[in-house]
Design brief:
about 350 residues, alpha/beta, 8-stranded parallel β-sheet, about 45% helix, binds 5'-deoxyadenosine
Length: about 350
């Protein structure tokens, strides 16, 4: 079956409302998932290092202007402890995420990356926002394997309306290209249901995933945050119901699996936030093959509120871990072993003649 999808076909699916016809989409995505990335569900231990952020994204709850939350930055030892915990639980990867916090200097991140690599041998994914090229290069040399930076929406005007001008003079898409050059496994993604975003924009997002040739793609519903400008406007006069955002997100996950069958695609926390009962399960059934249990210590993570009502805030890592394992088992799937390298990335490197194990 074709690994590519045309924008007009994606758009037709995004407009489709008939549950029976949609069943075809779900099945096609699930088959492609099984045939290309198998039944393994890769677990990534998420550590939210710092919720301090120097940026003013209008949608994000940790934007610098929001004073309604306690700010924290974990000390390096706490980050290491989370990595050790991930290792003990058999995860192959730790994802280190933070706002753009000036306290996380290139040297400090480099040190932490090196120690985690040496001590645990885990694959390391960084998600530290927009960063200068020399920092990205330094972290790669220190042993980071992957980097996540969502482009949020392919609609340039919408992007500029909700996002401050680029840090370091480099738009996100340029940074994504740099990450590829540096040899990272590259992850990006979008929010679904941003006020002002059209179905055409979402279809273009899929085309952009293909043209950026992404290895990992995170897709989550936009969740209005009451302490952000965009969230205030959306809560006052809603543009979309949460169920519609969930349904559209699932369609985007399925279409993305069709577009890039070898990519790693998580069932995102935002999806579980808008549908705590079934969000993650439906994501995994409709194209996703990755889950990112949150390992951040509970006191800290309750303040990493990029959006409100975040799934799993009151749950200890151990219980989150158990519930994820139970979910995977109930789907007749199995937890991934090893680092869970993106097959999309491995295939490209193989074609380029670069050795990878
Ligand atoms: N709703 C959903 N996702 C959000 N993000 C930030 N704010 C929100 C929100 N209000 C997502 C962005 C960002 C990622 C870390 O979190 O896509 O890239």
């Amino acid at each position: 079956m074709s690994g590519l999808i045309q924008t007009d076909e994606a758009l037709r699916w995004l407009r489709e409302e008939d549950p029976q016809r949609l069943e075809e989409l779900w099945q096609r995505a699930d088959e492609l998932r099984r045939d290309h990335v198998g039944d393994e569900v890769h677990l990534r231990g998420l550590v939210e290092w710092s919720n301090r952020c120097s940026r003013s994204c209008t949608y994000c709850g940790i934007r610098r202007e929001n004073q309604e939350l306690l700010r924290y930055c974990l000390d390096d030892e706490s980050v290491l402890r989370c990595a050790r915990y991930a290792k003990e639980r058999g995860y192959g990867t730790v994802v280190i995420q933070a706002g753009e916090d000036p306290a996380l200097t290139p040297e400090r991140v480099e040190r932490v990356v090196s120690v985690i690599v040496q001590e645990t041998g885990l694959a390391i994914t960084l998600s530290l926002g927009e960063q200068p090229l020399d920092a990205l290069s330094r972290w790669k040399r220190a042993g980071a394997d992957r980097y996540l930076l969502r482009f949020e929406t392919s609609n340039q005007a919408l992007y500029e309306a909700i996002h401050p001008p680029a840090s370091h003079g480099r738009p996100r898409v340029e940074q994504i290209a740099d990450l590829r050059e540096l040899g990272y496994e590259v992850g990006s993604g979008v929010m679904v249901g941003i006020p002002g975003q059209s179905l055409e924009d979402l279809a273009s997002d899929i085309a952009m995933f293909q043209s950026l040739d992404l290895d990992m793609i995170g897709i989550g519903p936009y969740v209005p945050h009451p302490h952000t400008p965009l969230g205030v406007a959306e809560l006052q006069s809603p543009t979309m119901r949460p169920e519609v955002r969930v349904e559209l997100t699932l369609k985007m996950v399925a279409l993305t699996r069709i577009a890039l069958p070898l990519a790693n695609i998580p069932a995102t926390t935002a999806l579980s936030t808008l549908n705590p009962e079934n969000g993650r399960r439906l994501g995994l059934m409709r194209g996703a093959n990755v889950v990112m249990p949150n390992l951040t210590p509970r006191a800290a993570k309750s303040n990493y509120t990029i959006y409100p009502g975040k799934f799993g805030l009151d749950t200890e890592p151990e219980d989150l871990h158990k519930s994820v394992l139970a979910l995977i088992e109930s789907l007749g799937r199995r937890p991934g072993v090893g680092k869970g390298i993106s097959r999309h990335w491995a295939k490209r490197h193989h074609q380029e003649g670069v050795f990878c194990s």
